[in-house]
Amino acid sequence: MMDATKTILCEDASFGPVVDRGCRGGFDFTVQFEELILAILPTAVFLLVSPFRAVALLRRRITASRSRVYVAKLVIVGVYTSLQFALLVEWAHTTLRSSVSVASTTLSLVSGLSLALLSHLEHARSIRPSFTIIIYLILTVLLDIVRVRTQWLLEDANGTAAILTASLIVKVVLLSLEAVEKRSLLVGSGREYPHESTSGPLSRGFFLWLNSLLVSGSRNVLSLTDIPAISEKLESRALAAGLSATWDNCNQKRRHALALATVLTFRRDILILIFPKLAYVALSLSQPFLIQEAVNFVQSSETRDNIGYGLIGGFALVYIGLAASTVFPLLREEAHTPFLGHSRLGVSPHL
């Protein structure tokens, strides 16, 4: 358990979520909250998603050859897993821990093993950098920054803080390696995929894959042969086959039959678009409250630097979140343009 004095002063053993004003400048989360929400929750979600992704990848054929990047990724994952084991040992010998610190680190240790397997499968059997791994790493890197800050602010917790800092650095290195595209490593028909299809979430999110086309267009007059091919998932024949199968198996005489068949065919893609739209609405609604807090801070006679830094972080989180929730549907090109593909070819003669 945690030191009694620190428990009373900071309430780190409680859910919080924030500490008492007299502790760590009154601007921090409790250790219990950080371990539960910032560590256990994202790791548990990743561990739940990983088996389904691994099974899906096992059904695919090998599309990429091994390289130095592949070896480097596995080495870095091994270093990360070793650091989680060291952190688990450190938690077992320190009094500055919450009741869930050991459980949190155990999950992180298991996530390291899961990362090793999933990274291997993603490299060998996927044509693009892993969406699952990259999103998990980006999210946990941001959350781990908060945890590292808290541990360095705690007295007599330098060992834990040092290991968490090293883990954070290793995660950043692993993120940079996972974001490396594999187009030059693709074998067989893999080289025939459009550049957009082989781009990772970061490249597609920031539209970096279009840079070569923009540079070419600034120097020369573009022709039809210069325009990259569309994603294979947007080909009209494949889209039409899926809708035709659903249409043949549904009650074609009922009202709005075609609309219902379309929704059923693309139900997965439509559901994927719901979550970023909900996030966009929530972040938009939070803006007035954030602005009100900023006005109160400016008008307050008591200036606290930590509150100002928190407001800066809050505004950054909101507006980066708005941008991300807007771009996310564009990462799933098959989710927002399948109907365009249908309109080019048609579904079947009897529709």
Q: What is the strand and helix layout of this fold?
A:
Blueprint: H1 4-10, H2 31-58, H3 68-93, H4 101-125, H5 131-153, H6 158-178, H7 201-205, H8 211-219, H9 236-248, H10 257-265, H11 267-299, H12 305-331, H13 333-336, H14 338-345
Helix pairs in contact: 2-4, 2-5, 3-4, 3-6, 5-6, 9-10, 9-14, 11-12
Inertia-based shape: globular
**Percentage of residues assigned to helices:** 55-70%
The biggest beta sheet reads: none
Counting helices, strands and paired strands, the structural category is mainly alpha
Counted beta strands: 0
Q: Can you write the helix and strand succession as a string?
A: HHHHHHHHHHHHHH
Mean pLDDT: 82
Total helical segments: 14
Tell me the strand percentage band: under 5%
Radius of gyration using CA atoms only: 25 Å
- The end-to-end distance, rounded to whole angstroms, is 68 Å
Poorly predicted runs are: 1-5, 333-340, 342-351
Description:
The protein has 351 residues and is mainly alpha-helical. Helix content is 68%, strand content 0%. The protein has helices spanning 4-10, 31-58, 68-93, 101-125, 131-153, 158-178, 201-205, 211-219, 236-248, 257-265, 267-299, 305-331, 333-336, 338-345. Helix 3 (68-93) runs antiparallel to helix 4 (101-125) and helix 9 (236-248) crosses helix 14. The longest helix has 33 residues, at 267-299. The radius of gyration is 25 Å and the shape is globular. Residues 1-5, 333-340 and 342-351 have low confidence and may be disordered.
